[in-house]
Amino acid sequence: MTSLAEEHVKPAVRWGIGHALPRTVMRLAARRGDLQGRITVEASSGADLTGLFDEIRARGPLAPTRVGHTTTRHAVVKALLADDAFVTARPRFGAGILGKLAAWSDTDVMHPVRPPSLLAVEPPSHTRYRKLVTRVFTARAVEQLRARTQQIADELLDDLAPANPVDLIETYCGLLPVTVISEILGVPQNERATVLALGAAAAPSLDLGLPWRVFRSVESGLNTFDAWLSRHLDALRRNPGDNLLSRLITAREDGEGLTERELKATAGLVLAAGFETTVNLLGNGIALLTSHPGQLATVRARPELWSNAVDEILRFDAPVLLTGRICARDTTLAGVPVRRGQLVTTVLAGANRDPEVFENPHEFDVTRANARDHVSFGAGRHYCLGAQLARMEGEIGLRTIFDRFPDLTPLAGARRRPTRILRGFETLPARLGGPGAS
C-alpha cells in the first residue's frame, strides 16, 4: 500500500520546492523589473514578447538577472550552447533544509528534463547515449518516413468535413505528428489515443511554477506513461517491428546498449520533442500564413519555397521559447564574467529576432535567404535530434492542408497555450472551405 507520505506529503513538498517557491520568487522579481522574472511571468500570459526580446538585447551580450544572466543575442546563444563550461540546468537546493526536503521527497518518475534524458545528461554519458540514438535516428531513417507522412496527412484531411468549422489543433496539427511518432515508437493503432492523451498531459512538464492541479496532472501522466512504456518495451522485445524503438532496443556501441531507463527516457523524449514541438510548428505556421496572405500566395506560386517557409515559421514563432544552462566553472562569455552555479537563460525565440543576423527580423518573410540560421532547435551537443523529422513533417503538413483547402479561413476563438516553454496554440478554429485540386 502507498503510504500517506508517498501519496500526499512528498508530492506537496516536491510542488512547493520545485514550483510554488520559484513561481513566487519570479513574480516578485518581475515586479522589480528583473528580466528573468519578467520573461518567466510574461511568457505564461501569451503576450507578445518582441519588445522584451529587444530590451534584453539592449542590456548587453549577457543581461544580468537575479539568478545569473539572460541573452537574446544570436551569437551568444550559439556560443554558450556549444561551451562545455555550461551544463544542462537542473534545480540545485544545496545541503540546507531545502536540499534535504528535496532529496526526501524525490521521485523515480521519468521526466523529460531529468537524467537519463538526453536533455539532462552531459559527456561522457551524453556522448555514448547520443551516438546510440543517432545511429537509428538518421537522415535516411527520417527520409523513409516521408511517403508515410504524406499518406497520413492525406488520410487525416480526407476525414475532415470541408463545410464545417473545425479545431485544427485537435483534428490535424495534433494527429499528424502523434501518428508519425507512434509509428516511430511502434505503437499499435489501438493505443495511439493513449499516447496522444499522455503527451498532452505531460506537455507542461518543461515549465517551472506549475499550479498544484497542473503539477499533479503532469506527475500522474508521467507515471502512467512510464507504466505504459514498460509494457510496450516488453512487447517490442517479444515481437520487434520495423520501427526506430525496436532498433534502439538492439542497438549496441562497443557491446553496450541502452539501459531500460535510457530506453524509456529516449521514448519519452521522442514523444515530447517530436510531438509537442511539431504540433506548435504546424499550428503556428497555419496562423502565420493565413494572417500573411501575401506570403501564402508567394509559397503557393513557388512550391519549392515550402522548406524555407518552414524554417521562417520556426524562426518567427519558435515552438520552444528558451532553454537554460548552469555555469559549471567560473568563466567568461562574450567578455562577461560568469560565476560557477549561475543560471544563464538563452532565449531562443529572441535570438531568432537578432537584427545582427536577420534583416528586418520582425517581418515574416518566406523568401528570407538565411531563415535556416534560426536556433529554434538549439545548438551544440544538445542540438535537437528530431530537427530533420520536424522540418519534414512541417513541410508536408502545411503544404498539404493549403493545397487541399486553398480557402482555409481562421475563425474567432484561437487560444494560445498557457505553457511557458512550449509556444503554440491550444485551439485554432477554422473553416476549411471547398477542397482544391488534389
Automatic annotation (TrEMBL):
Entries under SUPFAM superfamilies matching the protein: Cytochrome P450 (SSF48264)
Keyword Transmembrane helix found: no
GO molecular function, one term: iron ion binding
PROSITE patterns: CYTOCHROME_P450
Coiled-coil region(s): none
Pfam families the record matches: p450
InterPro entries: Cyt_P450, Cyt_P450_B, Cyt_P450_CS, Cyt_P450_sf
GO terms (BP aspect): cholesterol catabolic process
Keyword tags: Heme, Iron, Metal-binding, Monooxygenase, Oxidoreductase
Similarity comment: Belongs to the cytochrome P450 family.
Protein known as: Cytochrome P450
